[in-house]
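Thread title: Can someone regenerate the structure for this chain?

I was given the following input by a collaborator and told the matching structure tokens would be attached. They weren't. Posting the sequence so someone can regenerate them.
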Amino acid sequence: MLSQPRCHLPGLRRKHRPQPRGSTAAPRAAAGRQELPGSRLSPPPSAAPPQLRATECILRWKGAAAIVGRSHPDPDVSGISIETDNKNVKAEEFKEAILSCKHKFSKGMSLRIEWKKIQPQGVSFVYYNSEFTGDLRGRAEMLNTGIRIRNVTRRDSGTYRCEISAKSEEGQRLGEATITLTVLVAPTTPVCEVPSSAMTGTVVQMSCKETEGSPPSEYQWYKNGVALLEKTGTGSARAANITYTMNKKSGTLLFNTVTKNDTGEYFCEASNGIGLSQKCSVKRMQVDDLNVSGIIVAVVLVALVMVLCGLGVFYAQKKGYFAKESSSQKKTNYQSTSEKDFKHTKSFVI
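Best answer:
Regenerated them for you:
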């Protein structure tokens, strides 16, 4: 049986037990120490405080006890245990969230509690010197060593760390627990893009998107108030022989070749399980057949008009309408020039 060693350390008070004359307690203790191979129960001389050397002595004794197959748990020297009820907390926006942090210290210990938020740009204090800081000031309160946050917002999402330190006779000890807070946000009204018209046989794509929801929203398209089936290749969707592809993750509705049957009123609905689902306004798409004969007739008419215009210009040139106009202009210019010269001559004779 292994007995707890007596650590003779200066500065530590221990109860004095008188020894009878001729006692061989010291040799027996030395012999007891020799029974534990590989262990050094006598603390080496150092400048460390007596309390720290006492802790080292006790821990070495516990390690030696494990060697011989017996465990002696001691709550005063065991590692600090920090626990939490939930490491991944989820709370809806504008409601409350509780971050639990529990310890197993005795009531007489002096505890120091700190909360920090771990961010990409660094670590910031949340609770320090017995008060909250930053955005949580006025919105949070302590629940023993945990935190209750009221009116949480999406900015509160992140990783938090609870740190508790305790002072004991063996020295300073520290424990910590990490908790992730995810604030759930309901979706907003999505933005839908639906073409007002399309020709049969063409490719048409509709889109639906909203960016506020957390977790990200999924999307459902409706035609004339009826939910469209997702093309899965089995069941009712396969039997319907649908000609489109709906992606609920991205919110796209793709028609490889639209037909007149695709004419209708369309809208999209966004939902993520938080709050109420949101939908965009209804938009109508009209699909018409391509009128080939009408296009041919229009092209022929345009060609005829261009031919008639050309014939008219040719006929006018042949009749000399453009030549007469030019000669009359020359005659007018000649008369005006002669009259000016005459006036100038008459003035010179006078």
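Residues 198 and 287 are 5 Å apart (CA to CA).
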